[in-house]
Amino acid sequence: MTILPTLRQLQFLIALAEHGSFSRAAETCHVTQPTLSAAIKELESILGTVLVERGARGAALTPAGSAVLERARTVMT
């Protein structure tokens, strides 16, 4: 059985890319920061790659994250 990303996970990735911060992205999506963070971690697990570089100054997408972001935006439009 293949596990696919959820639309919610894709929405979270888009918000994270737009805001560059887990806390601001969570606020925009009306969830807690740990919820958003866990969903992104699960998405990374499903896809088998790191999508986000986490740092003290925020979050930045990896090249793989940017590729997934493009597809996520297509799916969500």
Question: Can you give a write-up of this model?
Answer:
- This protein has 77 residues and is mainly alpha-helical.
- Helices cover 65% and strands 10% of the residues.
- The protein is built from 4 helices and 2 strands.
- It has helices at residues 7-19, 22-29, 33-47, 63-76; strands at 52-55, 58-61.
- Helix 1 (7-19) crosses helix 2 (22-29), helix 1 crosses helix 3 and helix 2 crosses helix 3 (33-47).
- The mean pLDDT is 95.
Please give a handful of descriptors for the protein shown.
77 residues, mainly alpha, 4 helices, 2 strands
Number of helices: 4
The parts where pLDDT drops under 50 for at least 5 residues are none
* Gap between N and C termini: 27 Å
The proportion of strand residues reads 5-15%
What pattern of helices and strands is seen along the backbone?
HHHEEH
Q: Mind summarizing the main beta sheet?
A: 2 strands, antiparallel
Class computed from helices, strands and strand pairing: mainly alpha
Coarse morphology = globular
Widest sheet: strand order? 1-2
Overall pLDDT metric: 95
In total, the number of strands is 2
Q: Roughly what percent helix?
A: 55-70%
Rounded to an integer, what's the Rg over CA atoms?
11 Å
Summed up:
With 77 residues, this protein is mainly α.
List the helices and strands and how they pair.
Layout (H helix, E strand, L loop, with lengths): L6 H13 L2 H8 L3 H15 L4 E4 L2 E4 L1 H14 L1
Antiparallel strand pairs: 1-2
